[in-house]
Design brief:
The structure is a homodimer of 221-residue chains. With 221 residues, chain A is α/β, with parallel strands linked by helices. Chain A is built from eight helices and seven strands; from the N terminus they run H-E-H-E-H-E-H-E-E-H-H-E-H-E-H. The radius of gyration of chain A is 17 Å and the shape is globular. The interface between A and B is large, with 36 and 36 residues.
């Protein structure tokens, strides 16, 4: 009896993610779930991305944050729809919270929704939000051992962005070690080296994400 | 009836932390719970600490890691007792796991146990492991907004170590903003600026932690 109840709960969770995914597919909206450690550069990546892509695509953002609105405020200048979810101590977003906030957007008028998940390499990897794909963002300042130490995210993600490569000369980060570990975990995953501070590699990322939007939604610029 | 069961479970958790704390007090062992984001420098801090303090104090380490033994291996060179807990996906340690591994140490022959928690600013802050105190470690590369965005850790900790200050010239980290936010959250908490890479500020930290060991355990060097 109890086992049956548990199964129903699990089913409901997955059903909600599928519900979100189906709704977005119907509305032709791509959804990307950005996951990283605290301070790896999720918001700065979104700044770099919105400032260029808002001229080509209709962008929405869901900001996941424990308690503040600081990241959401940083993105206000792009005049795009932003919904903030404060988890109040919760360490990740889930599909139920995404489902609840989607009605805040006019989905017919969007091409893509970026979700900035709560800063955490672990728990967010374990939850399907109904996204098209997860994006793993990691900073060279965190060290080259992150893929092997937090493998689930790197297994789940469709793309890895290695950020803050402008700090490379000042750290003992070994790109070879990082790459070798990543290959073990997810051999086919693309990896771009970027710096959201000096703009290095951003062009390649923008090209890649634009192609994802085009291929999924069939919108043209 | 159900509420009663829940209360028993919660009581058991806190009881276990208290049990750990009482055992360590009886054995005159200080326990420190080190919490940070992935890659903020917990293991490098322990390297810096062990290489000096092992000549003065008898040190043990509990390594919390999701899946690898990499951090534990880095500390093997100090010839100190190390116990590794692989959480297998779990995002924090809890008092039950600490209680289970304590018998692996000869507590009579230890002055201090450092716990390196799983790399995560959120969940580890919420669990009492039976430690004497929590230590918050944060890297300047993570940005100056960490106290306000992850307040629980900075409220719970007895000391904040701001690591990687050697990277300060290459980031937009504002010490004034960081300090002002920290003051709002925990006005009396001491804050040391350190670099585990170039050794800056390490002396101050070693002096502080040595004083904690002396005052708690009454061991003399």
């Amino acid at each position: 009896m109890e086992i049956k109840i548990m199964k129903n709960i699990l089913d409901r969770n997955q059903n909600k993610a599928d519900e979100v995914r189906n709704l977005l597919k119907e509305k032709n909206v791509v959804m990307v779930n950005i996951i990283s450690s605290p301070g790896a550069g999720k918001t700065t990546l979104l700044e770099r991305t919105c400032e260029v892509l808002k001229n080509t695509f209709r962008i929405g953002v869901i900001e996941g944050d424990i308690t503040t609105d600081r990241d959401a405020i940083r993105l206000k200048k792009y005049d795009i729809p932003i919904v903030l979810i404060n988890t109040e101590g919760g360490c990740h977003l889930d599909s139920h919270s995404i489902s609840k906030v989607l009605p805040e957007f006019e989905l017919e008028n969007l091409d893509i929704i970026f979700i900035e998940n709560v800063g955490n390499l672990i728990c967010p990897s374990q939850f399907d939000l109904g996204e098209n794909f997860k994006l793993a963002l990691v900073s060279v300042a965190e060290g080259d051992d992150k893929p092997v130490k937090y493998p689930m995210l790197f297994r789940e993600a469709r793309l890895v962005l290695l950020n803050k490569i402008d700090l490379l000369p000042y750290t003992n980060f070994s790109f070879d070690n990082f790459y070798a570990d990543l290959q073990q975990i997810n051999p086919k995953i693309p990896l771009f080296q970027i710096s959201c501070t000096n703009g290095s590699g951003i062009e390649q990322w923008l090209k890649w994400i634009s192609a994802q939007i085009h291929s999924k939604s069939n919108h043209t610029a």
